[in-house]
Amino acid sequence: MPKRRDIVAIVLIVLPWTLLITVWHQNAITPLLTARKGTSCTGFNVALDCSSQRGIVEVTRTEYVYSRPHPGLMFFPPPRGHPTYSRPVQKAELTRLANTLLHVSNLHWILVEDAPKRTKLVSHFLQETGLNYTHLNVETPRNYKVRGDTRDPRIPRGTIQRNLALRWLRETLNVNSSQPGVVYFADDDNTYSLELFDEVRHECVGMACSLCGGLRYESPKVNTLGKVFGWKTVFDPHRPFAIDMAGFAVNLRLVLSKPQAYFKLRGVKGGYQESSLLKELVTLGDLEPKAANCTKILVWHTRTEKPVLVNEGKKGFTDVNVEI
Amino acid sequence: MAPRMRLKLRTVFVLYFLVSVMGLLYALMQLGQRCDCAEHDQPYERTISRLRGELHKLQENMKKSEPTAPTIYVITPTYARLVQKAELTRLSHTLLHVPQLHWILVEDALQKSTLVSNLLRTSGLSYTHLHMPTAAQRKLHEGDPNWLKARGVEQRNEGLRWLREDRRAAAGGGGEQGVVYFADDDNTYSLQLFQEMRNTLKVSVWPVGLVGAMKYESPLVQGGKVIGFHTGWKPSRPFPMDMAGFAVSLRLILAKPDACFDADAPIGFLEGSFLQKLVTMDELEPRADDCTKVLVWHTRTEKPKMSTEKAMQAQGLGSDPTWEV
């Protein structure tokens, strides 16, 4: 009898300590401990790190900028099957976009290539930039690829790539996480001012975008109550959301809480792609105008000329091994 | 004695047990507070990515704290057009990463514009704002192709003139340390390019991407010396290079005060007209891994279509002209 009681006693003494030590050992990355010491979590710029500890006020806002190379230009019919002829200006565009993004704190770049697999050029480039990034790829199926005039507005471009990024976000991030963030769709040939990212950071949904739609600028119409009530644009202003991809950003929580909201792929008229996503997320009244009630231009829909490469001739003049 | 001891021992034991259970519960509660870190699947990539970012920042800080590094003077001619603000904005973002850089922006205008003045003021860069209009007979007209007349000549010469005056006025021999680079506002520059050009003795050269109707143009290098040029158009020109493909040391600029761009030079000979007065081909210093890497691209921005704007203006519904685009 005493023997059993002793054993029971020993077990009951040892058990809590074993559990405690095991559990603490498993959580070797313990912001818990550092949090207790009172240091803030500002060192953790990485998305989703556990900064929302009890008692810590510091909240790491993370912004996801999704960018993709122009799929239309990626599939410019290669003459004589030259694989390196896919898109000459790609590296240049990504370089200058990265130079801008490097100035923005707490940014995570999701770059989706329209290709069957991730290219070395982009992988290497992303590694060298020093940015936080995620490199994804998905190829647009043949029947959706743009033919002929790459600027045909009837065919939406980049849809599959943007949807992949949305899916990655939803799979990677937990909807219950208190991590705040903003999702912005950035094409790599546009121009972004740094002020834009400051404005967007605070859960923005609507902005003004310049040089769109054959006008000097396009913009939401804002009434005196600070609510969006219409669109100042010429191309079909009666679209539910007559706005360019660069003219809005979405709160991350909204994206995560509505997992069925994607860009519509089929049956979308030109100019309606943005609407196909936004109408599943918000109504017009939910839009929050930024940029001084949509009176300032902070982003430009610039387009880069396709470089003329006539002097390369039929066989190519320059060394194909040099990366441009 | 024995029963009392046992009682005491039991009490001690019970207390101990209670304390340890409470401690365990407390720890479990603390752990329960943690946000659900679903990213356990990618912790390493994220850590690596974060460390790279920090390394990058530290490298930049290191560079910034080198006051003895030669200053890079970037001379950029610019002119008013719809995409001007966009171009200058993204160029300034690139230049902001480069330490010890002074931007000399020369407007093709009769006076300095508010758009450019404000942009420069808020850019955070060290700059000089100049203006010099192009001579009437050399101005391109609407519809003229870009290559018809040399552009930016007067502006670059004005930049050189200011620089020479400013450096002469600066006391001490340290004022001669520097490099001059001519950067157009629509090209794309990698940050590595500025590192390559910083220590130039006379004139350093490198390849330029997407120029001359080719994937790239480049000097040909053998044994560390430039022996020729890879270009598709008139390779017999003295210096068949683009403006973005070379940088000149400040010392050389000051030593040859008459060296300027010749506005009357035939098309394609503009760069040569300047370099001929400064160096010979064998004095050129090749950079970018003996001219095998492309670190600058001669990108061009499309002129935005304004057809709808014109139509709206005809109806009196044009965009607000007071907005700065």
Automatic annotation (TrEMBL), chain A:
Involved in the biosynthesis of L2/HNK-1 carbohydrate epitope on glycoproteins. Can also play a role in glycosaminoglycan biosynthesis. Substrates include asialo-orosomucoid (ASOR), asialo-fetuin, and asialo-neural cell adhesion molecule. Requires sphingomyelin for activity: stearoyl-sphingomyelin was the most effective, followed by palmitoyl-sphingomyelin and lignoceroyl-sphingomyelin. Activity was demonstrated only for sphingomyelin with a saturated fatty acid and not for that with an unsaturated fatty acid, regardless of the length of the acyl group. This is Galactosylgalactosylxylosylprotein 3-beta-glucuronosyltransferase. GO terms for cellular component: extracellular region; Golgi membrane. Coiled coil: none annotated. Its EC number is 2.4.1.135. The active site is at E274. Its main location: Golgi. It comes from Neogobius melanostomus (round goby).
Automatic annotation (TrEMBL), chain B:
The active site is at E271 (proton donor/acceptor). Mn(2+) binds at D186. Pathway: Protein modification; protein glycosylation. Gene3D superfamilies: Spore Coat Polysaccharide Biosynthesis Protein SpsA, Chain A. GO terms for biological process: carbohydrate metabolic process; chondroitin sulfate proteoglycan biosynthetic process. Its cofactor is Mn(2+). Belongs to the glycosyltransferase 43 family. Its main location: membrane. One of its GO terms (molecular function) is metal ion binding. It is a single-pass type II membrane protein. Residues 305-325 are annotated as: Disordered. The record marks E217 as: Interaction with galactose moiety of substrate glycoprotein. Pfam families: Glyco_transf_43 (PF03360). UDP-alpha-D-glucuronate binds at P77, T78, Y79, D108, R151, R156, D184, D185, D186, H298, T299, R300. GO terms for cellular component: Golgi membrane. Keywords: Disulfide bond, Glycoprotein, Golgi apparatus, Manganese, Membrane, Metal-binding, Signal-anchor, Transferase, Transmembrane, Transmembrane helix. This is Galactosylgalactosylxylosylprotein 3-beta-glucuronosyltransferase. Its EC number is 2.4.1.135. It catalyses: 3-O-(beta-D-galactosyl-(1->3)-beta-D-galactosyl-(1->4)-beta-D-xylosyl)-L-seryl-[protein] + UDP-alpha-D-glucuronate = 3-O-(beta-D-GlcA-(1->3)-beta-D-Gal-(1->3)-beta-D-Gal-(1->4)-beta-D-Xyl)-L-seryl-[protein] + UDP + H(+).
